[in-house]
Amino acid sequence: MRGISEKFAANPLLARVAPFLVYAFLTTFQGKLGPDSKYWIYALKTFLGAWVLFLALPYVAEVKWKFTWEAVLVGVAVCVMWIGLDPYYPRLDELFHTIGQKLGFNSAAPKADRLADLWNPFVQYGTSVNLARFFVVVRIVGSSLIVPPCEELFYRSFLYRYIVKADFNCVSLGSFNLRAFLLTSIVFGLSHGEWLAGVLCGFAYQGLVCWKGRLGDAITAHSITNFLLGIWIIWKGAWQFW
Question: Which of 34, 57, 86, 153 is spaced 20 to 30 A from 216 at the CA atom?
Fold first, then answer.
């Protein structure tokens, strides 16, 4: 463990990218190792992501976490926007399929039966309610406490500033650059099935970082968004958001 911490201390890039890469790498295996792997790999990447964050965060000075009402308002507003926009635009796979057809490519059609592919442990473990509840709790914890710092370290602390200048650590976190602002938000949006909400969400979080000059505000807003969205999913059975 000391060796890993020393690498994070010596390499600013690694400290900001490693938690995200660990999380993203394990995500590619969800559902690929059998139906259950959709759930246990999520649990695995949550625990591993927490461990890597624990080692990396001490070496990311710009986190500067602070509770602010602006972060709370942004977090709530993004959640409302994410849910409210959902019926009015196609998901990313549907959009790519439509574009592919118009360009004459034989793009793979989106899955017709989305219900069978939803992340819903109560369907997968219908007779084991406690196991299903465990995975729901893990998902809430992962999406609310692990995903936000992983993604904010990568997108807002590293990628945004790297687009401005290769020596990203010399770029002030609060500096505004239109090209970096747009590109980072678009890349962030396209990493989600709900791409339009994702892009607008990227605008909101990046704007908060540029305004406050702290990464912690965006992490707080991101955590609030994901927690409220998780509550909505469970309350309304809106499993398509997971």
Answer: 86
Eight-state DSSP code of residue 171: S
Give 92-144 pLDDT, tens digit per residue.
988 887 887 777 776 555 555 455 578 999 999 988 999 999 999 999 999 99
Kindly state whether residue 4 falls inside one of the protein's structural domains: no
Q: For residue 70, give its domain range.
A: 65-241
Q: Does any domain span residue 50? A: no
Total domains present in the chain:
1
Phi, then psi, of 190 in degrees rounded to 5: -75, -5
User: How far is it, in rounded angstroms, from Cα 185 to Cα 223?
Assistant: 17
Q: How far is CA 66 from CA 84, 136, 219, in A?
A: 28, 28, 10
Nearest residue to 199 (alpha-carbon basis) of 217, 220, 183: 183
Q: Model-level pTM?
A: 0.91
Q: Is residue 216 part of a domain?
A: yes
Beta-carbon contacts of residue 141 (< 8 Å; ≥ 6 apart): 46
| Chain-centre distance for alpha carbon 237 | 21
